[in-house]
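Ticket #4471: structure export looks truncated?
Reporter: QA, pipeline team
Priority: medium

Steps to reproduce: submit the single chain below to the structure queue and open the exported record.
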Amino acid sequence: MNLLLRLLWQAIFARFRSSVSVLGPCRTPFTVLPTDLDVLMHVNNGVYLSMMDLARVDLMQRSGLFAPIYKKGWYPVVVAQSIRYRRSLRAFQRFVIETRVLGWDDKAFIIEQRFEWQGDVVAHALVRGRFRSKKGGNVPPGEIVATVPNPPATPTLPEYAAQWNADHRLWPET
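Actual output as written to the record:
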């Protein structure tokens, strides 16, 4: 329920935030709530992943991507993600998730997300995500990007992200 309320809150306030490029960066503010904590009184590792979902939705809303893909019956899914934690986030700390699309291949987008608190990176994640159609099947990234005005060219992935993506492409995807 906590995340549904955050999603609603974010959907409302995204309209008042500045627009961003479909590639980002998109900086999404959060506050650690008591319901985000585990028994050690820091943010639970699973909550980080859920917050990343919300930050990606914020990127789609603020870049103008959300409405056209929703109309077409397309929706995003995560196929792989890796996260590294450097520091803990505690109750009521305010922090930002910076989301950027590093690039894409023929099947999926490679997204980088950084949790930042007081100028320090608290956690860093790479996400491989793609879009599915409610009619069935996958939607190529090129079709997704083409829904926005002046679609960007495919950026060259940084070496660390290209290697990570290559490693994850070894696993069969459905």
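Status: closed, not a bug. The export was complete when the record was re-opened. Leaving a note from the reviewer for reference: The CA atoms of residues 11 and 58 lie 8 Å apart.
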